[in-house]
Write a structure and sequence with these properties.
Length: about 750
């Protein structure tokens, strides 16, 4: 691929650092971006947390014109836009949550060319009125590309098929010269082919990353009478870290949430039976770390953009491996170590079977093909739960990826079962598959091996095969365990159309030719995990927790999720490297120019305070001033107001209340209060008495004097819940301005 010229930057890495604060690319990202910058169509398969979004976001900033991002859920697009805006990137979304005035304002901004990324749902994108708007955009500012997120939704073979995604091919027909990027975290080979076909990708650059998530630990436990106690202890050991618990039914979600709350665990429910406003509020509280646990059905997840989820627990068996991989993959998106725990019982199988029976057409007739495929996928999930082999090997094998085994990060590898040589038995099994012309499933092969006199065996003459009865020294369960192991190790294949027929592959013939040994793990009584003990925190971990608390306070003040301030990975780098100057702080991964200016001083002050308390060396104030002075001088100190602040000030001076200003401008009331606070800090003529009664002002200022002005949370805690954050923020802004005078 020819060398790329990046206008305004020495390299693609320099652009990455400038916009997002990262020093290096993750595997595969740079090649994908290079192809995107050359206007190629792309299919990008990257695991959750692998950096898919960056693959279209950075090219969008470096190309002229607007990039359209198709996203299936309102919550997902809002979260991504919030995160982009935190990096001072011009992104916006258009969806049903916006009022007419605000939507019109955003359209005007798009046509002016100031927006680089626009997030929309597929339904809106395909609306004729919106397509006419896009024609205007293309003519005035240009269309740089179309990114289709969660592209597996286009395929009937995917685990989350959405019919509206199928119509996205119409966009390719309308704009044949605009490059299309399709992205997903989960796609089997069959789904990948379907995406390429359905979206009409032309000579695409296809990138398939490893599906391996090495930072995730996988474990399966039997679901028994005392499983709740096990679950409760698991949560307690997480020391307040965020987690998601998945249940199959709304009833189970409600019951488990209530029980956890009764036991002092901060948990909220999420399912389709709740009102939209309640669901949205619960999700928002979880994202902002106001609650530790979200107990949810599978309705929760695709819209979640929270990188620091430390554990995901499935309290029931998932429908299929693809769903499990994606749901469990919501843990550890920031690359930090996280746990994925699955509880499994036979009762779950009956529940799933019932759910599969509900797949019917408009006339109530069974959708037999869908039911058949769903049952095959359920059997694969049961195999995973019951397996004694490396869980990572099974997961990756499902997606067509070979893994050497013994990952060291699953229960079966940490506490391995005894391994036996079953090469001879494997040769018998595979030979029987060949003798049966590769036209039957596992159960029939086992029947032939064990000499069954069933009608199916006898009617086909399989009792006359040389492999008939040669395996009657093993039980059906033993043969089934071998068959599953051969599938998991990739030593035999199985069709995926709902009729699970066994097929030989090159690895099968290697076994038959005695070129490969087959080893199979045999079950034993599970032992208690000796690693589950309380560990004393190191000094680094203590600082990390302190920085997390600082991050949450800042996030609360700004009404944004904590990860928008900094991700856990960046906080861990800070805790390890303990930068004390802005120059050093700017070298931390995840700290771009905008965040250096916005948060540098407050985080370095916190780090220096911690080091002083611990008796560690602290950089002298003179050195800090000398090193950081050039950066401080670079910061613009213009008192000129932006258009939006000037408009809010003008309406305030006319005597309008914040609520009236918000209604007239088509923005949220919280936005107006933020404007007024900023105006107060700038010394603008805001009449505080119009906004906060004098007696309440006095109480708030007294609290500020006693508690300190740094954080809103402690001030409100001192005052009580009868005081709103908005009025505290305004009085604090006035107080801080007067301290400067």
């Amino acid at each position: 691929m020819p060398a790329l010229s990046i206008p305004g930057f020495e390299s693609l890495e320099a652009a990455l650092k400038h916009f997002f604060g990262y020093d290096t690319f993750r595997p595969g990202q740079q090649d994908v971006m290079a192809a995107a910058l050359q206007n190629q169509d792309l299919l990008v398969i990257m695991p959750t947390g692998g950096g898919k979004s960056l693959c279209f976001q950075l090219p969008a900033l470096l190309k002229s014109g607007l990039t359209i991002v198709v996203s299936p859920l309102i919550a997902l697009m809002q979260d991504q836009v919030t995160a982009l805006e935190a990096n001072d990137i011009a992104a916006t979304f258009l969806n049903s949550s916006l009022g007419a005035v605000e939507a019109r304002e955003r359209c005007d901004r798009i046509l002016s060319g100031t927006v680089k990324l626009l997030y929309v749902a597929p339904e809106r994108l395909l609306n004729e009125g919106f397509l006419n708007f896009l024609d205007q955009v293309k003519a005035k500012v240009g269309l740089a590309g179309i990114a289709v997120d969660e592209a597996h939704c286009v395929s009937e073979w995917g685990h989350d098929f959405r019919p509206e995604y199928r119509r996205l091919a119409e966009i390719r027909q309308r704009y044949p010269d605009v490059p299309v990027t399709a992205l997903t975290a989960t796609a089997t080979e069959r789904v990948r082919g379907d995406i390429l076909h359905q979206l009409r990708l032309q000579d695409p650059h296809v990138h398939v990353s490893s599906f391996n998530r090495p930072n995730l630990y996988y474990e399966v436990r039997p679901k028994e009478r005392n499983s709740y106690n096990s679950l409760y202890q698991e949560i307690r050991q997480q020391d307040g870290a965020s987690g998601i618990i998945y249940c199959l039914s709304r009833r189970e979600v409600n019951e488990l949430t209530e029980r956890l709350q009764d036991d002092g665990i901060s948990a909220l429910p999420y399912h389709a039976g709740l009102k939209d406003a309640d669901r949205s509020q619960n999700q928002d509280r979880f994202i902002r770390d106001h609650v530790q646990i979200m107990v949810a059905t599978v309705a929760f997840g695709m819209g979640i953009n929270k990188p620091d989820v430390r554990f995901v627990i499935h309290y029931n068996l998932p429908r299929n491996i693809e769903s499990y991989y994606q749901e469990a993959g919501r843990a550890g998106r920031d690359g930090e170590s996280s746990r994925c725990l699955l509880y499994f019982s036979l009762k779950d199988i009956h529940t799933l079977d019932w759910l599969i029976d509900q797949k019917v057409d408009a006339n109530g007739q069974p959708l037999e093909n869908e039911q058949r495929v769903a049952r095959q996928q359920m059997r694969q999930m049961i195999d995973y739960a019951e397996s004694t082999e490396c869980r990572r090997t099974i997961q990756l094998g499902y997606f067509g990826e070979t893994f050497a085994g013994n990952c060291g990060e699953c229960d079966n590898c940490r506490h391995p079962k005894p391994v036996e040589d079953w090469t001879v038995e494997a040769q018998k099994f595979l030979s029987c598959v060949a003798r049966c012309k590769e036209r039957f499933g596992m159960n029939h092969i086992i029947d032939v091996l064990r000499g069954s006199k069933s009608q199916k065996v006898l009617s086909r003459g399989h009792n006359r095969l040389s492999t008939y009865g040669i395996g009657n020294d093993k039980t059906a369960d033993q043969w089934r365990r071998l068959g599953r192991s051969l599938l998991h190790q990739g030593l035999v294949a199985e069709t995926t159309d709902g009729y699970p027929v066994l097929k030989l592959n090159n690895q099968s013939w290697a076994v038959l030719k005695k070129e490969r040994v087959v080893q199979v793990a045999v079950p034993r009584t599970p032992e208690k995990d000796p690693t589950q003990v309380d560990l004393k925190r190191s000094e680094v971990e203590a600082l990390f927790m302190r920085l997390r608390s600082l991050r949450k306070r800042l996030a609360d003040e700004q009404s944004v999720p904590p990860y928008v301030v900094f991700g856990d990975s960046s906080l861990k780098f800070m805790a390890q490297q303990q930068p004390q100057t802005l120059a050093d702080f700017g070298q931390i991964s995840g700290v771009g120019q905008r965040k250096l200016e916005q948060y540098g001083e407050i985080f370095t002050e916190e780090i220096r305070a911690y080091r002083q308390e611990q008796g560690l060396p602290v950089v002298a104030a003179e050195i800090i001033e000398q090193e950081d002075l050039p950066k401080r001088r670079e910061r613009p100190k213009s008192t000129q107001l932006s258009n939006t602040l000037a408009m809010t000030l003008a309406l305030h001076q006319r005597g309008e209340t914040p609520e009236q200003i918000a209604q007239q401008r088509g923005v949220k009331v919280t936005t107006v209060f933020n404007h007024l606070g900023e105006l107060l800090e700038k010394g603008q003529p805001v009449v505080l008495e119009q906004l906060v009664p004098v007696d309440r002002q006095a109480s708030i200022m007294q609290a500020i004097e006693q508690v300190g002005p740094d954080y809103l949370g402690p001030i409100r805690e001192h005052l009580g819940e009868q005081y709103e954050y908005s009025e505290i923020k305004l009085v604090r802004a006035w107080w801080q301005q007067n301290q400067k005078a």
